[in-house]
Amino acid sequence: MSANQDQDPAANRKRGATAEKVSALGKSETPVKPSHKAKNKANNKAKKKTVAKKPSAPSVSTQTAAPATPKGAGAPAPLANLETFARLDIEAIADNMAQLVDEGRKALAAAIGGANPDETRSELAASVADATKTLGAVAEYWLSKPDRAAVAQADLYSGLSEIWRQTLRRYGGEDVAPIVPSDLSDKRFSGPEWNENPFFDWLRQSYLLASRWAGDMVESAEGLDPQTKARAVFYTRLISSAISPSNFVPTNPELLRATMDAKGENLVRGLKMLAEDISAGGGVLKIRQSADRKFELGVDLANTPGKVIWRNDVMELIQYEPTTAEVYARPLLITPPWINKFYVLDLNPEKSFVRWAVEQGFTVFIISWVNPDETKAAKGFEAYMHEGVLTALDVIEKATGERKVTAAGYCVGGTLLALTLAYMAATGDDRIDSVTFFATQVDFSDAGDLQIFVDEARLAALDESMARTGYLEGYKMANAFNMLRPNELIWNYVVNNYMKGVEPAAFDLLYWNSDSTRIPRANHSFYLRSCYLENRLARGEMVIDGVRLNLRQVKAPVFEIATREDHIAPAQSVFRGARFFGGEVTFVLGGSGHIAGIINPPSKDKYQYWTGGPPKGAFEDWIKKAKETKGSWWPHWLAWVTAQAPEKVPARRPGGGKLKIICDAPGEYVRAKS
Question: Is 411 part of the annotated catalytic residue set?
Fold first, then answer.
């Protein structure tokens, strides 16, 4: 899960130029005449070069093909010798790049006293190897045919040349339209100098044009399997984002002005924050996204009144105080994800789904997962099912006297809930009377951007890392989410925090996003391999506690809410998975993305949702026929869930049953920091 919505894929192509092109075109505004001595020196050098020499075999870098130049395109840059390229061993290059990164990591660790330099190959090294191999496959496609590569190079060169000519005309006083118009949604270039100053306008346009060209090169590469192409798109976007001129003081007019105005004090403040963030991450940069000191759990966040009524090695179970005289007889159990903490569903009184559900008359219970240490390494999905969901059902019956409950699961918490339902169906347990899934996948054949991070090599590197600690470090999952939106979640903060020296504002959702949790080794390995890599649940091959799981056996009514801009649990993936259940399924599509589309209270009157019955046929056809309704989907869900069990009883208070109160909500597990 991530606190922010993924970008429009079309915008992802507007990133990344090569540093060589930028520096080659970055001339000063007024050419400087060479001195008389300089001229003589240059002439002498030229004479020396005319002396005949014995010809030598050309190196790889000097062997070039000479394709025809397309009309009006200018001379294309030299192409690498294609026969030489064909002989290159991409696998070996990728492996050597990985070793280079890993040796550099060890040297740095030894120099600064950080992580153990004798550790085995790092996950970063595995990522570099994969990036090299993936982008090498794209390059191989283009360089396999000289004509195709020549046209592509000519297109780039022609575009950059046209931008340069337009820039020269602007320097000459002409008012000419930009070749690459400004995109108002791209906040990196929102400052006026990016358009008003010819030099910075040239930088902006050249970068965006080259970035778009690089993205098109990946999209147009034929013969790549979908996974390789998806990774190539991701790596291209990541690299393009990193080399944006907006990320560096000399090439960002706003940073230049801020540095001059502050006489460099902004950089001093930024360096101080950088040191603090590296220290906070235990030697790894943990970019701050919010003013963390301004929030306190139980006071500013997660402040819906309630009590912890149960605690074990895996979870605390919270029961919330009623606010109505009567409540629905059937309690509501919420299973949140453990990748972040549960209070995304209880951020503050205005955004809290928990508080809103209590106000509608539900007796609400929510699981608060443990933030595990090395002692929980063996806690896998089976433990989270037995000691989490199934234990919660036992506790709720003791607390309320009700055997039947309605359950809701969010993201990976919903995936756990789905396999628990399949397990219960196979073992004759019918305590969950209806179920709601928030942005939940059970079929991972088209699992979104996170699938980029899952393959055998990465899992092997990850398993090695988790074997040393017993868990996945919280910051690693947070970094993975951040890399899906590098402009908003990485470079935006690098620029503002470490270059402008400005501490980020207090924002509850980003505070939650950075409050990451560790994940037990057994749990995370099972999830990545069984779901993302092998898709066992959808294929009917998943076995839990000796029981083969079949979602067709789940007959309880299902309410499935997906969100239209979700790149973590894509709507089409959620739609496809919803068809695996054996009972009645109501599918709803919400506006926005993975978080904002779910946490969308009626009081805000934001976004919209679409209804169109069960998930049948193609997803695109379902959308065409669906009815759009403005505002929050929560009231629509309320009508659905209460129609099944409208009976009410006097309000129940925590501690009123057979269980004693342990402590006030939000409990102790949620306070443990990674």
Answer: yes
